[in-house]
Amino acid sequence: MYKTLFWHYWLQTVRAPGYYKNLVVNIFVGLMALYLLAILVMLGLFFPNILMEIAPQSEPIDIIYGCLIYAVIAMLMMRFIMQPLSKLNLQSYQVLPVKRDTLVNYLLLKPLLNPLNYIALCFVIPFSIKVVLPDFGVLSFFRFLFIVIFLIWFNTLMAPLMKRKFSNILAGVALLLLIGGALYALEYFKIFSLFELSQSVFGFLISTPAAWLSVILISLLAFFLNKIFFARNYYPESFERVSKKRGTGAQRFTFIERYGKIGEIISLEIKLVLRHKRTKSTLYTSIFFLFYGLIFYTNPMYAEKSAWLLFVAIFVTGTGMLMFGQWIINWDGSHFDFIMTRDIDTRTYIRANYTLMLALCIVSFILTTPYFLFGKIVIIHHLVAFVYNVGVNIYIYIFAATLNTKRLELSKGSSMNMQGVSYKNFLVMIPLLVIPIGLIQLFAIFSASYIALIIITLLGLLGILFREPLLWVIEKQFLRRKYALCDGFRKKE
Questions:
Q1: Which of 378, 190, 392, 176 has the alpha carbon at shortest distance from 287?
Q2: Angle in degrees, CA 7, 10, 11, rounded to 5
Q3: pLDDT value at position 241?
Q4: Cα(109)–Cα(88) distance, rounded to whole angstroms?
Q5: 44, 147, 340, 440: which sits with the fewest CB atoms below 10 Å from its CB?
Q6: Nearest to residue 206, comparing CAs of 299, 111, 109, 136?
Q7: Dihedral, CA atoms, 209, 212, 214, 219, nearest 10 degrees?
């Protein structure tokens, strides 16, 4: 029966209309995946040398042991935000002689077979070959690999359970951040060292025969916790009772609606974001990416690299705009025909989308002002990036949104979901990031990166100054593309 269920899932995938329509996108994503895998393999090979330079007083394997628990917590948070829930068309199987337990097991086991779960092994295997194998032997090498696999299984099973238990993903993320922050505080003030505990535990498990098998117990615990949840909530009437309890109370944003039709359209867009799975998933992901700067600003290696600093600054100061910009029109795909029949002129519609993206950009900039504590160089790059986002990127995104005629299914999560994505979504990255970074790299040859920053700032200021002509160009483009958008949004992939 499991073989039949997985075969049905495969047929459902390859027979979907969008599977072959998005062939170019799938090929591009495949090439990017191969590139990422190659980077992970190379990083795994050279990571021991990097660790020896950073912490020469410690053994590389001891550092990895100490970081394993922190890695599990971080990956659990990422999976909680990004991993989609397994779904099954229950009505198709409830009329057949298929045991309920079989369907539940299938829902739990299906994510474990996803190859994306095991990308980390591309880093772990080369690292183990270079460090664990020569120093600890073949048995310890395989113990280490199996421990990593069991931890991956634990995360893969726990993330969906947490997502089902926490109907509000933001509350779950806040809880994980609170736990992570508390552990970091205990580590920082030397009250309790999870790093040392992790070193001792995994050092013992890998060096002791048969002890490593205990790690599989936490994977089994996650599996049975999921089974308990499904035992209580599997029946359709249970889901119906929960949905009725939650209700669908109408949300009103009167402080926005008082600004006329533009305010009403923005209010509708906000409601759309808060009520659909894909838009909410994108919103939570954009909040997560606000912390992207911590990877670079805390590393002295990037302190003098203006191109990298501007890349990060553009990304974090415009996270909301970057995540929603390309889809600002596609979000309305399911009711686009209805919008076109309303008393809404093109000028109002475009300016409403522009105002919403501008607000997202301003909010992202305000939320990233704590990065100013990293020094004057970060402040300068953030200000330049903000002006460039507001004066250049915002128009590029709205213009590019008129070119994408693929309808988005908002009921599906955005994580690992390429539905509605085309090659045009990748081309827009050229003016967005490549041009300003390339400009800085060019002037960096002559040790004049500050001139590139001045030019980028002037481009942004010109965009702000000539806002009306630029929006007029976008309005004309929207009018030319309106019927193509209507036709494209009517087609379901």
A1: 176
A2: 90
A3: 42
A4: 13
A5: 340
A6: 136
A7: -150
Q: What's 252's DSSP letter?
A: -
Which pair of structure tokens corresponds to residue 107?
């829902």
Distance CA(81)–CA(170), nearest Å, equals: 9
Task: Provide the token pair at 187.
Answer: 């580590």
Predicted local confidence at residue 8, as pLDDT: 81
The pLDDT, as a whole number, for residue 247 is 45
Distance CA 266, CA 44 (A): 47
- C-alpha angle 60-66-69 in degrees, rounded to nearest 5: 135
Measured CA angle at 294 (ends 288, 295), to 5 deg:
100
Determine the angle formed by the axes of helices 60-82 and 169-188, rounding to 10 degrees.
160
Q: Which residue has the tokens 């395989």?
A: 142
Q: Residue 340: how many CB atoms within 10 A of its CB?
A: 15
Give the per-residue pLDDT at 418: 53
Contacts of 4 (CB under 8 A, 6+ apart): none
pLDDT tens sequence across 253-295 = 555 656 677 778 877 777 777 777 777 777 777 777 788 788 7
| Predicted pLDDT of residue 164 | 77
User: Is the distance from CB of 82 to CB of 416 less than 8 angstroms?
Assistant: yes
Residues of the chain falling short of pLDDT 50: 236-250, 416
Q: DSSP assignment, residue 492?
A: -
Distances in whole angstroms, Cα of residue 144 to Cα of each of 166, 369, 396: 32, 41, 48
Contacts of 489 (CB under 8 A, 6+ apart): 330, 332, 333, 334, 336, 337, 405, 407
Query: What burial class does residue 29 get, using C-beta atoms within 10 Å of its C-beta: 0-12 exposed, 13-18 middle, 19+ buried?
Result: middle
pLDDT at site 449: 81
Contact residues for 221 (Cβ-Cβ < 8 A; gap 6+)? 154
Tokens standing for 343? Answer: 């008393």
H or E segment to which residue 417 belongs: none
Residue 244: predicted pLDDT:
44
Q: Tell me, what's the pLDDT at 255? A: 56
Helical segments of 120-214, H only:
121-127, 133-136, 138-165, 169-188, 194-207
Tokens of 332: 């309305």
Tell me, what's the pLDDT at 154? 92
Handedness of CA 263, 264, 269, 270 (dihedral sign): positive
pLDDT of residue 426: 61
